[in-house]
Amino acid sequence: MPDCPQCALPLDTVRAREGIHYHCPGCHSYAATILQIRRLAGDKFATSLIRQINTNMTPSERSCPFCGGRMRSFTSQSPAIELDGCRRCCAVW
Fold first, then answer.
1. Please, which residues have CB within 8 angstroms of residue 47's CB and are 6 or more apart in sequence?
2. What strands lie across the sheet with 91-92, from one edge to the other?
3. Among 1, 6, 33, 68, which is most exposed with the fewest C-beta within 10 angstroms?
4. How much is the pLDDT for 19?
5. pLDDT one-digit tens code per residue, 17-34
6. Is residue 81 part of a domain?
7. Is 30 inside a domain boundary?
8. pTM for the full model?
9. Cis peptide leading into 79, omega within 30 of 0?
10. Which pLDDT band holds residue 63 (cuts at 50, 70, 90)?
């Protein structure tokens, strides 16, 4: 079970019709894969997130809950949300 990169509690696995995402019961943050985001928000938004993860070099304070690697911080343009993404896992926090 992956742990929250913010508060280190075990993440809850949430199964939904669109796929699986992970929720932290402590800080109420979420992790999702690009595949699930694509199902929920569409190809255009998911592709935009992938581009931002791949081109942004700003290291995050957080490590990926899945692979342990350093995530990258970026701000999604539409809607404006601060996110962390793992290039290796294609996961977004």
1. none
2. 12-16, 19-23, 30-33, 91-92, 81-86, 70-76, 59-63
3. 1
4. 83
5. 878 899 999 999 999 999
6. yes
7. yes
8. 0.80
9. yes
10. very high
Place of tokens 């999604």: 76
Nearest to 39 by CA among 14, 66, 20: 20
Write out the DSSP string of 52-93: HHHH---EEEEEPTTT-PEEEEEEETTTTEEEEEETTTTEE-
Domain, as residue range, for 17: 12-92
Report which of 49, 46, 41 is spatially closest to residue 84, judged by C-alpha positions.
49
Strand 59-63, strand 70-76: pairing: antiparallel
Is residue 88 a part of any domain in this protein? yes
How many domains is the chain built from?
1
Indicate left, alpha or beta for 65 from its phi (over 0: left) and psi (-120 to 50: alpha).
alpha
pLDDT at 1 over 80: no
Structural domain contains residue 7: no
Residue type for position 57: M
